[in-house]
Give the backbone structure.
Amino acid sequence: MQLRFVVAVSSLAIALPLASVSAQTTTPPAQTAPEPAKWSFSLGVDPTAFHLNTPEPGIEARMVANLTRTWQSGTSRWARHISLMVGGDAPHDVQPGLPSLFGLPQCVCSMHISRRYAGLTAGASYDLFRVSRFTPYLTGGAGLYYSEFGRSTDGLLTSGELAVYGTDFSSNNFSLGVNAGLGLKVRLGSHELFIEQMLHDFNVRPHYGSGAIAPLNIGIRF
């Protein structure tokens, strides 16, 4: 499972600079000066999936990291970007024992759950207005996402419990997805600090159906 994740992330990482070169080579011949390109790096936590006090061992936390290449001329409110996102949920354990009203056995065991994902997306952003050094903006895009889910069961299981809770399980898949968000950037010399609330809609949990993640990102553009 880990090897597949490394291969998927490596493939996306290789595609990112190639896509950057492609975007630069599509500059219209009539444009005398290319748009200045900048890199940005940010880290994010999904506030809808962040809990330090959980009934099971571990914490609930969904974290992402983003590397983005942006093109924007000084006279335009529009910007184009290509972004690589990687992230995952903090590994945690759950107790699979269920109330007897469901008629399911309650085993003395725990399930170790892990989720990871990555995405290569392209899109655009629009500066709403400028007030001194502060600029709020809207952003959105679409791209290819990779998601991976893993579950392992620890403990002694009877044959009946094994039939209900199963053995180790893992799944992964690629899917198309979209994203959108609202952010605020602050210019500091030649750099920019920014904070943005994003929503990525793609197949986060392939065995449960489609889902979404909503990281709050804080980063720097240089």
User: Anything to note?
Assistant: Helices lie at 2-25, 159-165.
